[in-house]
Amino acid sequence: MAPALDRIRVGSAPDSWGVWFPDDPRQVPWERFLDEVAEAGYSWIELGPYGYLPTDPARLADELAERDLKVSAGTVFTGLHRGPAVWESTWEHVGRVAALTRAMGARHLVVIPSFWRDDRTAEILEPPELTAEQWAHLTKGMERLGHEVKESYGLDIVVHPHADTHIDTEAHVERFLDSTDSGLVNLCLDTGHYAYCGGDSVKLIETYGERIGYLHLKQVDPRVLAEVVADGVPFGPAVQRGVMCEPPAGVPDLEPVLVAAQRLGVELFAIVEQDMYPCEPDRPLPIAIRTRRFLRSCGA
User: Fold this and answer.
1) 2 lies in a domain?
2) Angular region, 34: left φ>0, alpha ψ -120 to 50, beta rest
3) pLDDT digits 0-9 by tens, 32-53
4) Which one of 105, 180, 272, 274 has the fewest CB atoms closer than 10 angstroms to its CB?
């Protein structure tokens, strides 16, 4: 019998319904997402791209209450390695998302670094490696963000290592963690992105357990990943090739990840995010139901 993972709070996100943008005709309407995520057996969700779900707090609260759903986090995108010049525009974006996140009773803000190559065209926008000065801007900027978000909104930021960003590989993630204050900045470990970039999620949890503040659960298809790496495919087209697959078909094995997280002795959200943009509207719900059943078999 699987161990009881009673400290792990499982949820899902718009991403698992093929939602990457606030408004896109290829995405399911937000009402359908809410209906289906509840039908699949989840009680926690993320807000997804700001503007996809209603941004009026009273209306969103009513829609969630109708379906017995709660919000675990909001998500923001940042380019803080570019230095103080981007702070004002970053804070404007963060403030909108953080205010709605707080209004929904959530306590976390997932922070995703900007991409170094275009997610669709593969155009190289910036070098994939940061200079020492850019690393300093990134780490100090994230610490400032963590402080300001906590002071202004009472939320904790969790930084999300992500393919095709400057926080991706094991070396980059460890450098980032070693260079930031755990009182201000912790990690959203996305098991799929970390595997995509060659990292070992269980090892990271066991080594930097005190810095793991949040989990995203997804898996990578190793065969597709090998093709993607060999062909130099950017993340968006890689998703269209099916690089992120339905568990338990891929890597990493999620049960050892969840067991390692349970051993940390703290309550953690574990939010399913199976990247599927774009996808047919009838595809997500059956996958979500099977994934929830699989996670229950792991004890979560």
Assistant:
1) no
2) alpha
3) 999 999 999 999 999 999 999 9
4) 105
Residue of 185, 92, 171 whose CA lies nearest to 139: 185
Handedness of CA 298, 196, 9, 280 (dihedral sign): negative
Q: Which of 201, 110, 105, 193 is nearest to 158 (CA)?
A: 110
What domain range includes position 156?
Answer: 8-297
CB 97 within 8 A of CB 74: yes
Helices (H), 67-187: 87-103, 132-153, 170-178
> Which residue's entry shows tokens 């390695």?
81
Q: Report the SS3 class of residue 53.
A: coil
Residues 6+ apart with CB under 8 A from 48: 13, 14, 15, 19, 75
What predicted TM-score, i.e. pTM, was given to this entire model? 0.97
Nearest by Cα to 119 from 195, 196, 231, 233 = 233
